[in-house]
Recover the amino acids of this structure.
DNA sequence: ACTTGACTTAGAGCGCGCTCGAAGTTCTAA
DNA sequence: TTAGAACTTCGAGCGCGCTCTAAGTCAAGT
């Protein structure tokens, strides 16, 4: 009964560290992982999609507290689907706002770069 | 000689707290600010643009360490223009990468939301 | 003159998300 | 069989970017 993916290999596949995988389990983002007879963790291939989804939520700035709430809802089965959807919709709006802000700020930074290029040209023309 | 903007008003204008303004000055993001005869800080209207630019850099994820480097270059005058431009260009690339990642992740989250909607419809149809 | 509140400095403390260390057990390869 | 790497738990520690506290000074209103 010692099948499944050892933590090292699972870490490699998810891009998370073994430390982080244990931490995520500890704080309830991952359900308790099955063990080999030795006590070592054995991940299932099916755990991959969930960890990848968690990683997307983090990468888009969702706080760990909210991810914990989402994971808790998920453990409570299908009747939490609407609440999970609403949570994701709120996050979707946050991301869209963040994207809009980034684009505005990027435009301003791009202008600044152009301003520097202009200055460099005029400095070079009469300064050197 | 006590003209200029008191810290409270300047904080309100920039959206930073007075604490953060003092902190930024302490770590060299802001040049030492002029003082009234009382010792109280007096900001100049011209400081606003710089603080706003700093705020854009932070909002787009530039680490404070890099902002410190940028501020130090700026203090060294026009001959640092090319290096400042290169620093901003590198940051520009970082933002563009981040935007691309966010968009990919947002799309995946949007799909997940749609998946939930589909599930809710089919659950509702035969479950209720 | 006195109160109230904004300011000053220096340094401590905090919330976040990991990340690491210690001490002990188990697996793997020679 | 034995060395060394990988695993376990538990709790401490860290880097970041602020944020706050304490103790004191200064300014404005009554």
């Amino acid at each position: 009964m010692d099948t499944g993916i050892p933590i090292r290999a699972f870490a490699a596949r998810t891009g998370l560290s073994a430390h982080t995988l244990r931490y995520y389990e500890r704080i309830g983002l991952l359900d308790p992982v099955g063990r080999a007879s030795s006590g070592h963790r054995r991940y299932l291939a099916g755990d991959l999609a969930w960890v990848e989804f968690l990683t997307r939520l983090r990468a888009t700035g969702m706080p760990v507290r909210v991810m914990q709430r989402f994971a808790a809802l998920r453990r409570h089965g299908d009747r939490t689907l609407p609440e999970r959807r609403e949570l994701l919709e709120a996050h979707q709006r946050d991301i869209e706002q963040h994207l809009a802000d980034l684009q505005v700020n990027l435009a301003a930074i791009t202008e600044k770069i152009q301003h520097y290029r202009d200055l460099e040209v005029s400095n070079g023309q009469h300064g050197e």
